[in-house]
Automatic annotation (TrEMBL):
Name of protein: Glycosyltransferase 2-like domain-containing protein
Any Pfam family the entry gives: Glycos_transf_2
Taxonomic source organism: Brachybacterium alimentarium
Domain of life the protein comes from: Bacteria
Domain Glycosyltransferase 2-like as annotated: residue spans: 40-159
PANTHER family the record matches: GLYCOSYLTRANSFERASE, SLR2126 PROTEIN
Region Disordered, residue ranges: 12-35
């Protein structure tokens, strides 16, 4: 493993802590002092150069009086111009960390938090657009003496198309409504793309588990560890962000479900006492159909082909049937992924 490369402003450094220029400290209206920012925002990014400008615009538009904050973008193994984009950002106190190879989202988050200086630590994915009160809302959630984990929910933003009309928009609405209705004891399941803790909590709970190398569940794992440590998790509705990176097709959604199913087996192995049930196809005719779908979609190439086949059908079948076809592919792929045994090294 090569060392990560650190760069900030025009005075990037390699290996050790990043050197920071005077212009860096003046960004985002923050005065030049030797004090640390109140908030550190860690943004894990993989091929994110086209997504990050919208996120940076949103951070530059935070309300007057927002706590001081820094942004640390962790470039996970492919520098598609992201490092240069961060260096050129003149409105914000921003720096980047470059991995020479892809290490996964958990490792990226850990590197960002280890390099951070703030009291409040926010994870914010690179495909979000946050509201103007985002930094203030997360900071305020940690203003009391007690430790909490703060979740900012996300709302999927879809582009029009057969998948969106048949499945994407409806699934997004139902997902957000379900998240808002979760009772406190289940909110650990919401730990995902936008969330925050204090540095004290980070030092107590420890880093994200880097055994999650594929898509999903590294975040739920951390939420469960907070829950197991009896740290309450609150939903910060003022931090609701737009998610501009949802799946755009049945193929993409089914592949995500398959990979998340694989990650679920890792979670169940690491946390056998967690209240996460055994994956099941369900009962009745639909359960039989999902079980058959899982049998057909037992490997990722089959999931890709199956999802693509559904995409070809969506423009020509009635919308209710299209919704069922996508759901069948997604649920079958998720079940198939969960049947792949987890190894002590985690998923790869």
């Amino acid at each position: 493993m090569g060392a990560a490369l650190f760069a900030g402003g025009r005075d990037g450094a390699c290996g050790g802590a990043a050197q920071r220029s005077r212009s860096d400290e003046q960004r985002a209206g923050q005065s030049v002092t030797n004090t640390s920012p109140e908030v550190s925002v860690v943004v894990p990014s993989y091929r994110g150069v086209e997504r990050l400008p919208a996120l940076f615009d949103a951070f530059a538009a935070q309300l007057d009086g927002a706590p001081s904050f820094e942004i640390i973008v962790v470039v996970d193994g492919v520098d598609d111009g992201t490092s240069a984009l961060v260096r050129a950002e003149s409105r914000l106190t921003a720096r980047s960390i470059l991995f020479p190879e892809n290490r996964g989202r958990a490792a990226a988050l850990n590197a960002g938090f280890d390099a951070s200086r703030g009291r409040v630590l926010i994870r914010c994915d690179d495909d979000l657009v946050v509201p103007r009160g985002y930094i203030s809302a997360h900071s305020t959630a940690h203003s009391d003496d007690g430790s909490v984990g703060a979740v900012g929910l996300t709302r999927d933003i879809h582009t029009d198309g057969p998948y969106t009309r048949a499945y994407g928009e409806d699934a997004a609405r139902r997902s957000l409504a379900h998240a808002l209705s979760r009772p406190p004891k289940e909110r650990w399941r919401l730990w995902a793309a936008s969330c925050s803790i204090t540095r004290d909590t980070w030092e107590k709970i420890g880093p994200y588990d880097a055994r999650y190398r594929g898509y999903g569940w590294e975040d739920v794992d951390y939420g469960y560890r907070l829950h197991a440590a009896e740290i309450p998790i609150v939903v910060v509705e003022e931090a609701l962000a737009e998610h501009h990176g949802p799946a755009r097709s049945a193929r993409a959604r089914a592949v995500k479900a398959f990979e998340a199913g694989r990650a679920r087996t890792t979670f169940r192995r690491l946390h056998p006492d967690a209240p996460v049930g055994e994956p099941s196809a369900g009962h009745g005719p639909w359960g039989l159909a999902v079980g058959a779908s899982a049998h057909l979609l037992s490997a990722r190439p089959a999931v890709t082909r199956g999802g693509a086949f559904v995409d070809r059908l969506l423009p020509v079948v009635p919308r209710p049937l299209g919704r069922k076809l996508v759901a069948l592919a997604v649920e079958g792929a998720g079940l198939a992924g969960s049947r792949i045994p987890s190894t002590p090294e985690g998923q790869h």
